[in-house]
Amino acid sequence: xxxxxxxxxxxxxxxxxxxxxxxxxxxxxxxxxxxxxxxxxxxxxxxxxxxxxxxxxxxxxxxxxxxxxxxxxxxxxxxxxxxxxxxxxxxxxxxxxxxxxxxxxxxxxxxxxxxxxxxxxxxxxxxxxxxxxxxxxxxxxxxxxxxxxxxxxxxxxxxxxxxxxxxxxxxxxxxxxxxxxxxxxxxxxxxxxxxxxxxxxxxxxxxxxxxxxxxxxxxxxxxxxxxxxxxxxxxxxxxxxxxxxxxxxxxxxxxxxxxxxxxxxxxxxxxxxxxxxxxxxxxxxxxxxxxxxxxxxxxxxxxxxxxxxxxxxxxx
Length: 316
Description:
With 316 residues, this protein is of the alpha/beta class.
């Protein structure tokens, strides 16, 4: 499938995004054959349900289909807003925005096949008249200034850098801020560098174990040694994220810890007291209650810094 600068079935102004280049992105939650099966059987709920639960992991199913999984987006009002969804993937967030009141949703994605799936789903849900599709590399595209009310980056910002993560994260956020209208908002979800699971050797971005916790130069050396490429998917701590957003020109920055991760949020929290309560009641993950209980014993100044992920909102 070849998608250029185009829309779904309605006329529209595409000056908001210019210099768009076609690209063949590779990342996806599912492989091409699975995607084709899903598209083919979107209208056969029983066939589709049986296939999904037989062949996919629960997280993949949620990311693909459970738009109610993103109820923490109620932190922002999307009603009658023009929204740019950067890295829309198969479209779960875009469909959510369109379903819950957005005036228009501009869905931007590197992988054209993921956009194809979004197109089919939008038609099935009768949301296609609100959704525009764009295929390209966000780091290379230009955004027209003062074009959007809300711009979202859901688990995407850390994937964009190509050489200098800290500097390029500021550059990409600056580009986002310039494309927002006055008082417009950006919503970013991203992992915390001190995510508790990193201390157990788990990672989120295909890094070598413990890489997010290492000094950057050591993580870079080891990543080059074992993976043949530099370490670029940097995550940061709460204070560094605030610094990055401020350097990009955002004000009124709000940062919310998320349990147990932005991919499958159970709670969006805003205090150490609440975090401690949820850890004791539910565990860090529902299957790791002992770990959660142990974490909850940490003093406030440490516990406040060890959360899985953040929702970050900034205002132009």
